[in-house]
Design goal:
Radius of gyration: 24 Å
Order of helices and strands: HEHEHHHEEHHEHEHHEHEHHEHHEEEE
Distance between the termini: 59 Å
Number of helices: 15
Strand content: 5-15%
Largest sheet: 7 strands, mixed
Low-confidence stretches: 76-84
Mean pLDDT: 90
């Protein structure tokens, strides 16, 4: 799609060839990059399951005619053009008892299947009352669906998810991330099924009763669970990521509760929060979003020194890295940024040895490694996402990867899973009396690490201002 957009921008007609079943996802990618309705040609079946003769025959009979039509025809109408079935914000879309409303929402695809609070106009207005926000203010446009991201739609899904009004500033910050091109929310339905993890830190997290302690990633704490559910509902109802629209996840992941960080521990040991690692100040409330493909529990970490602890933590990070390494080179360069969540007990143990955060990051970088042969299999032999099955030493010679990836010709040499220590994100949360950790592998630019400040001050959207210069 990106090549097609470059061509169209130069007034060169294009057609993008995509696999069967991925036309909706391709359209979402085009829309996310500012081009809606680009011509597509669909291939029959999955390219990796056909022999050469079958694939060529299918391509000639079916795909080439679509390419010709796309090159000589008009750009197709934007997706959604002419649709009249989508209700407006104040339409009554269901009525009856609670069972009838739930059934209607499930049938229309507006529910995640769990019980929800019906978002009546009165409830939504009550949710926003006193916030100072103009309900119809638009924060941006969802790059996948083309729908406006409004304060009203944020509140509708907040009511459904059971969020409290005091959660609204957090929801707005997350919505700002969803419309931020740096995050790339149009990729939220890609085939690997990565799901977003919300990370929250700052002085307001604890007063809002976000859990940063035991069971931090388990459903049950209202704030963490409701806000995490809100994100999945918003991606479904506003951004269009449902199986019948744009969601092409092969398996998917359950909705993740908010990961709130242990602020008291971070301040005690003088480590930066994820928000600070993203460039924010230590006293700012910050929401951060990144899409995670998979995770590995690192249980029962033993030892009293970094030399004893770090190799095990690094092994967990390395075990999360497989296909994801195509974000180091292949799908992108220098775009793999995994997350290590350590319990406060581990963080205090490491910090107590006079090991700084930067030192800890560097030690993880030095130990979180796999063999060069395995790395090359992941980005070449076992993947069709990196042309030419590149050799790491060649990539180093070309200046694509740093020298640490090409220190010898030994295929069993150990190479890092990221390009530099700063690419390893670290959070502190969980039971303060347990020595466990968790490693997440992120999905590169398909939901890139993006943060936004949470502004708890009442908005002034509805305040009437008087221009004193015109007063007599």
């Amino acid at each position: 799609m990106r090549a097609a957009i470059a061509a169209e921008s130069a007034d060169i007609p294009s057609v993008s060839i995509v696999c069967e079943g991925f036309d909706g996802q391709a359209a979402a990618t085009g829309r996310g990059l500012g081009w809606d309705g680009l011509p597509l040609a669909i291939t029959i079946g999955h390219v990796d399951t056909q022999d050469d003769d079958e694939m060529v025959a299918n391509f000639v009979e079916s795909t080439i005619p679509q390419i010709i039509d796309g090159l000589i025809g008009e750009l197709s109408a934007p997706i959604g053009a002419g649709q009249t079935t989508e209700p407006t914000a104040l339409d009554i879309v269901a009525s009856g008892d609670i069972a009838a409303i739930h059934r209607a929402f499930v049938d229309r695809g507006w529910s995640d299947g769990h019980a929800f609070v019906p978002p009546t106009q009165t409830r939504v207005e009550r949710y926003l009352a006193g916030s100072g926000h103009d309900p119809w203010k638009t924060l941006g446009v969802s790059p996948s669906s083309g729908r406006d991201v409004t304060i009203w739609s944020i509140a509708v899904n907040a009511v459904m998810a059971g969020c409290l009004p005091e959660h609204l500033p957090v929801l707005i910050a997350i919505a700002e991330i969803l419309v931020d091109p740096a995050y790339g929310s149009e990729h939220s339905g890609n085939t690997t099924g990565a799901d977003a993890l919300i990370m929250l830190d700052g002085p307001s997290a604890a007063p809002l009763r976000f859990n940063s302690g035991p069971g931090v990633q388990r459903e049950g704490t209202h704030a963490n669970t409701a806000v995490g559910r809100w994100l999945r509902l918003y991606l479904r109802n506003v951004c269009g990521f449902r199986a019948d629209e744009l969601d092409k996840a092969t398996f998917g992941n359950p909705a993740r509760p908010v990961l709130a960080q242990d602020r008291a521990c971070l301040r005690e040991i003088d480590w930066p929060s994820v928000g600070q690692q993203m460039g924010h100040g230590p006293d700012e409330d910050v929401a951060t979003l990144a899409r995670m493909n998979s995770g590995v529990l690192i249980g029962s970490v033993t030892g009293s020194t970094p030399a004893e602890i770090v190799p095990y933590l690094a092994d967990g990070l390395a075990r999360t890295a497989s296909w994801d390494l195509t974000h180091v080179h292949g799908l992108g360069t220098d775009q793999f940024r995994p997350l290590l969540v350590v319990s406060p007990l581990i963080a205090r143990t490491i910090s107590g040895t006079a090991t700084s955060f930067d030192d800890f990051q560097r030690m993880l970088f030095d130990h979180a490694r796999i063999t060069a042969a395995a790395f090359e299999r992941y980005i070449g032999e076992w993947s069709n996402l990196t042309p030419g099955r590149p050799v790491l030493n060649d990539l180093v010679s070309q200046g694509v990867l740093p020298a640490v990836f090409g220190e010898s010709g030994d295929p069993e040499r150990l190479v890092p899973i990221v390009t530099r220590p700063e690419r390893l994100m670290i959070a502190v949360a969980g039971d303060p009396n347990r020595a466990n950790a968790y490693a997440f592998a992120n999905d590169g630019p398909h939901g890139w690490w993006t943060s936004a400040r949470v502004d708890h001050a009442p908005a002034s959207d509805l305040v009437c201002r008087v221009d004193e210069t015109n007063c007599s």
